[in-house]
Design brief:
CATH architecture of the largest domain: Up-down Bundle
Distance between the termini: 70 Å
CATH class of the largest domain: Mainly Alpha
Number of helices: 19
Shape: globular
Strand order of the largest sheet: 1-4-5-8
Largest sheet: 4 strands, mixed
Strand content: 5-15%
Bound molecules: flavin-adenine dinucleotide
CATH superfamily of the largest domain: Butyryl-CoA Dehydrogenase, subunit A, domain 3
Helix content: 40-55%
Structural class: alpha+beta
CATH topology of the largest domain: Butyryl-CoA Dehydrogenase, subunit A, domain 3
Number of strands: 10
Length: 602
Amino acid sequence: MTNVMPPAASTHPADSRPHLASPDENPSFTKGLFLGEIREEMVFPFPALSAEEKENLDAILDAFRSFAKDHIDMRKHDHDGRFPDAMREGFHALGLMGLNIPEAYGGFGASAKVFNRVFGEIGATDPALAVYFGAHQSIGCKGIVLFGTEEQKQQYLPRCASGELVAAFCLTEPGSGSDAQAMKATAVPSADGSEYVLNGTKIWISNAGYAGLFTVFAKVPVDVDGKKKERVTAFIVERSSPGISLGKLEEKMGIKASDTRSVIFENVRVPAANRLGDVGHGFKIALEILNSGRLGLAAGSARGTRAIMNEAIAYAKQREQFGRPIASFEMLRRKIALAAAECYALDAAWMLTAGMVDRGGVDFSLETAACKVYASEMAYRASNEALQMAGGMGYSKEFPFEQSVRDSRIMLIFEGTNEILRALIALMGLQQPGERLKALGKALQDPIHGFGAISSYLAGRAKSTLNKPDFTKVHSALADEAELVASQVHALGRGVEWALRKHGKAIIERQYVQERLANAAIDLFLATATLSRITAEIEQANGDLEAVDAELDCARVFVHMAYRRARRALKALKANQDARLDAIAERAVEAVDLAPPAPTDR
Ligand SMILES: Cc1cc2nc3c(=O)[nH]c(=O)nc-3n(C[C@H](O)[C@H](O)[C@H](O)COP(=O)(O)OP(=O)(O)OC[C@H]3O[C@@H](n4cnc5c(N)ncnc54)[C@H](O)[C@@H]3O)c2cc1C
């Protein structure tokens, strides 16, 4: 099989610069929402594919689809729990393993827009293959693309691009999952500094059995002011290094053909030249890598949702009950319509975020997290609804629905669980408003010297709190929807300020509050992406609303849905049952018994 991708073209405008979100330096749209601001210039105009990107994307999708028709059988992969070697070789030969590796290192250098669209296609064809593809490229060798030295890139990326070296990402350990910083793996430098000795066990490693290369995170001992400390650091480790062994294949609920195992490192000697980034930069590197992984997962979930709902629609169209196709019943039509509106919004959100990644100079970390959370929950919900639409047949292995429920479930867990990502969105979003309030508190103690802080706080407050923010770039046909979203951005800014005043630093422990703020921010980001997308589509149709009525319906339904959810979440900041919830949970945890005895138990 030959590489059928179009000749590598510079589809990425900035091949040479890393796609860093750089949360500390760059502006963020979603962080602005926490200040009650709509940073419209960051989300308008909606990104578009260039003619070259479109041409390349079409060629890549055609090549992949024609390969998939004959070689990818997701039900067989699920049944066998592995990919046939010939399928993997054929997939590699397509050139897809280097899709977002820069051209200079043998890859295709696809933009984030193109890469994630292809990711989506693979996800809809076989989610396990998407995990193989993502574990390799989105996270496995992404660290080398983003942070590798020239020598590291030249040494490894061409072989990653061809598929000769399959990559894996080793962060999770038995005692450290969500709390990655608690890792135990160590990398101790040799006396002459020429190498590190790596010890530790990593678990749940996707691609472990296929991998020739691992990006591994371990703690390096350092001396800080005479005190011994440990700093998380990243390394590139070759599978062929002595001292590496693999655990048994995990028996999983879904994505069964994706090879997941533990990887054990025992006195593995890693050349110092294989350290990725500086000592102590490992955690930041891991977060940056996961930022890109999350977007692929979102694009894959969007296409997966579309694919499984299309199966359900086809089934419901031919299945008759009560003398008519079940697709004519409103309870099923509602499921179809809501999934369509959500899919429309999610496609808008991941594409808008991919545009930010391509543009650079933007902090897109909250946007990728928002896309991942929404997409994973949508895909799992849609798979369940699709199964429900097929009734008993939905439960049968003859149909793809049960596999889709199993395969989509993992998306809520890996690359940051949705709980952790909600906390991350809220706490990162709260940082700037918190700093403003803190500066104000200090300044009020010394108003003369603190005059600058007071006036900048008041200026910010005047902008975000007293004046409701507005959209000025949304097409007038969506004026009502824009108004609804703006009203909740205003409410979010005020809710943030109220929550910070009420809880102060203790907000770190107030996850009921964090979850509400994060949910509102996720919905408001998706609603904004929807407004940006529909505005571009109306403009493309030269203002002919009838030409885009399918898009308009989806956009309107989603924005109203997101508005209602955001409003509910923000109102619940003040009016809620949190104290009771806490008491109930406390009793259940204490007794390890969920609820008071049932009447029959007494
Ligand atoms: C199929 C599969 C493939 C994977 N692939 C990889 C891979 O390639 N590389 C890799 O490094 N890892 C991988 N993982 C690991 C995955 O990233 C972790 O499972 C995930 O990060 C959660 O960690 P944990 O399983 O230890 O759960 P825990 O951290 O123990 O969490 C358990 C539950 O508690 C919640 N929780 C934990 N802390 C908090 C908190 N502070 N606030 C609120 N809720 C909290 C979590 O959200 C979750 O619901 C994979 C996992 C699976 C199942």
